[in-house]
Design brief:
The structure is a homotetramer. Chain A is α/β, with parallel strands linked by helices. Chain A folds into two domains: about 170 residues, NAD(P)-binding Rossmann-like Domain (Rossmann fold), CATH 3.40.50.720; about 120 residues, N-(1-d-carboxylethyl)-l-norvaline Dehydrogenase, domain 2. The first copy, chain A, is built from twelve helices and nine strands. In chain A, the strands form two sheets. In chain A, strands 3-2-1-4-5-6 form a six-stranded parallel beta sheet, with helices on both faces. Chain A has a three-stranded mixed beta sheet with strand order 7-8-9. In chain A, strand 5, helix 5 and strand 6 form a beta-alpha-beta unit. In chain A, helix 8 crosses helix 10 and helix 11 runs antiparallel to helix 12. Chain A is globular. The termini of chain A are far apart. The interface between B and C is small, with 4 and 4 residues.
């Protein structure tokens, strides 16, 4: 006997970008009744075709939700969908759960948490790692800050989109770990770029370095994925450089509030910044290589 | 029918530190007649007990060698054993092969190559990666610059100590790739240290970050090995910080000769330098964490 | 015949810290009717004793002003006095002029400008340079963004507090130049600190370096003032490190919005950050030296 | 009664570049019998025309010298004229004084000092600051390491070329202070470049920043000289970028030997390096601006 679909809670999803759309499709596949909203409604087409209901505003999306999810590009976008006109926060019902999978500052996560608590809503910061590939395969990792009991309650929802979730501490802890993880990824790819710049300037093909790398202690899945992009100069965005640059900024903001010096992250952020400043199109963060090979 | 030991060429090994001793033992195990020399002869005891002949000088060690190997700690040490009084270079016979597994500048490798060529000796720069663990297990990687035919000729010798060798280009290419690899390792471990400094300052246990890391795209064998050391503050040297610091300096020297800016490597080198300046004992390079947690 | 005091416009001043108090005293000395407000009203005592009227709220201070001045410590403090409960913005009369001498982001200056324009109020961003010494002597420099005609109109007010004003462009330009100036000051003092760290580690007294410096092309008034502090380790705050650290953050935020890499500023900010993180008291930014001599 | 020229000691000068030639002319004007040598003898023409004797080798120049001066571009050039074939060191007579005004490492200064002492020659490291302008006007500053008595003895010689000399400590101290001074100059000009990059990206003319700078605490003679170059993009070399880059490298080498982290200097060096790597001609170090405005 299977659980009837009607037993599954209503889920609403705000933000239908590279991450949000595949997450929505996986929720539909898992049988969750789904309401969606996006600033540009055209992006909702594939989800509506697959059975999602399109809300007219963030607030309307929130009103029908037992579980609200958001996944937007940056803090201003999140503030806008939550606190702007027809914002989602005012629509959330007492007893609902709201999980934000955007990457924002821990401070904003804590502010949202407080505003939710004042309305009887339980909040989790739940940024994800795994990229568009992970979103499509339903293999995201959720990095969760908030009450453990709340996390337990929405595990069936997360299980539709991801393979694993980590309870990391109180609200803000999910975002803090997410920023720390992205620092590591940015520095790994940045290190490969510096190393490739050095060896190619010394007239050694970059492929030689990558070959050694793949047999070494330094091998990392992110380098397996990005190394061919750096070698070819093909920077089709998977995780856009402008978002990695934003996340490095959030990490440095946090570190500077806490009085923790991050010299290598700061140096790396300026390189990403230099590339962002000169790039005309949207590029993957592997395009950090363009600092040396414009 | 087994190959008689006498068919194996005489090998001499200069430099019996953390790397040289296990390399020598593996050569003996593989049946190579072995002559050794070390600045402090006490370090040769285990090898002599296992059948090695102890030479009285680098020059004497070189004179008996069909294949000479050196593995010393830095460029001045190498210049001393090669060019100093009773130096090895003057002892090498026409037709011998000399492979240096120290990590030095590509410029020094090319200078040695030219001096060897003038004496009818073939030279390979052949630094290794894999650490003391790789040296003990006979699983080193050799990063080789020089003539491919010379490499082919000494493959049986390398096979006694390592599992793989890469022909990377003319003399100097092995050292260049080695420096590039160590930059990547130093920045990976440095990135983990910055990330741990950030999350712990935010009152999240470092173990939480490492747990996420191990399920992520950022996972790397070097981080699997070093993360527990950073968490515990146990910096028993496997690859000493002073050597990593030296290699970052060699990489930056090369980059500054070539006009290639390496901002993140430069930032990271100063952190390693800060720790080196305050450390009283010999520590692993994982001790970069002491910049934040002295 | 002298101009009667009554001919001078009513001025209100919000923010009575190290800069605001001497600025207020100079306004009173010049004969301007002055209303003041400060978050901690005790700080107003000397000004009230000298003839200032103490308002009960920012709004009340603004209501009586023909010219409103603010000089608070950072962007959140400014947002609070302008937009918070009983905030100043709502009190400003149509036709009034508002000049902000705090150091905040150009973006905030432009937002305030737009909000003022909507109320028929003319706004200037007018941060100052010259420190507490300049404030006391009435020798501040005002770095002004906004309409030139508005600047002309309040020149008599500025002349009471400073010796010079620069019209630098539209709103935001004053703040942009201020951030750029503070970057230069922070890097000059930071450079002296690095140089002193180097020579003293080499067993040369820092005084020797400062002696040469004072005869050289590198001599700068800021170094004349700060060098003795660095040599003595006396960091009594004139311009507090936490404010310089904040301004470096604002400069880097602006640069990262504009896509302009600032590698040396970024490196320097992390050093100031490291000191800020470990300092227990309020110190001058000359305390950047504590990175090397805690 | 004037002192007869014959009473003045024979001086020899090796290295006739942008600094050496005007120094030589000033020595001749002051009446010192002068012997000169330069790798490219054509450069000696103006000095020979003014009465100098042209030696055939560094050694020959040294042989006739009561006081030997050298001023060459970098450590390898100095090692070559001292230790190469027909090198100067072998020519120096017991009792002579040798003062080196090149900028090299303190370690090289100490090595030369020891080699001189072994031959009964007194050595001073005496690098100069003041640039070509100072050399021409006879207003150089000499930064001297070595015995105070030796300095006293050659004061009449230095007085012909400079206006001031500082006794800074034992051999090496002059070079250490010189490196520290150049760090400060490089960071001052680099700071101005970052500030100009920021304000111009914000659509404010760089002249506005320079105008404020000149009324401020940050004013410095070096910025008065370099600011117009940065604004115009005119980088006619006075002090070449390749030499400033070399000196930053020597400073960082020293700091890394001493375990003193120099994060801002390291960041700045990489910017100078980036410009050096892409520059086709010889440029002043003010060309650091080309990192932002190629």
């Amino acid at each position: 006997m299977t659980t009837p679909a009607s037993a599954k809670p209503n889920v609403s999803l705000i933000g239908l970008g590279l991450m949000g759309r595949p997450m929505g499709l996986n929720l539909l596949r898992a049988g969750f009744p789904l309401t969606v909203w996006n600033r540009t409604p055209e992006r909702a087409a594939s989800l509506v075709a697959a059975g999602a209901h399109l809300a007219a505003s963030p607030r309307e999306a929130a009103e029908s939700a037992r579980v609200l999810l958001t996944t937007v590009s940056d803090p201003p976008a999140l503030e806008s969908v939550l606190y702007g006109p027809q914002g989602a926060l005012a629509g959330l019902a007492r007893g609902a759960i709201y999980a934000d999978s955007s990457t924002v500052s821990p401070a904003l996560a804590r502010r949202i948490s407080a505003d939710c608590a004042a309305r009887g809503v339980r909040f989790l910061d739940a940024p994800v790692t795994g990229g568009t590939w992970g979103a499509e395969k339903g293999e995201l990792l959720f990095l969760v800050g908030g009450e453990a009991a709340t996390l337990t309650e929405i595990e069936p929802v997360l299980a539709a989109m991801g393979k694993k979730w980590f309870h990391l501490g109180p609200n803000g802890a999910g975002q803090t770990i997410k920023l720390a993880m992205n620092m590591i990824l940015a520095l790994q790819v940045g290190a490969l770029a510096e190393a490739l710049a050095l060896v190619t300037a010394a007239d050694i093909p970059g492929e030689k370095l990558v070959g050694v790398l793949q047999s070494s202690m330094a091998r990392a899945p992110v380098l397996d994925v990005k190394a061919p992009m750096l070698l070819k100069g093909d920077y089709t965005p998977s995780f856009p450089l402008r978002l990695m640059h934003k996340d490095l900024g959030l990490a440095l903001d946090l570190a500077n509030q806490l009085g923790v010096a991050l010299p290598a992250t700061a140096a790396s952020r300026e390189i990403y910044n230099h590339v962002k400043g000169s790039a005309k199109e949207d590029l993957d963060y592997a395009a950090v290589m363009k600092f040396w090979k414009p």
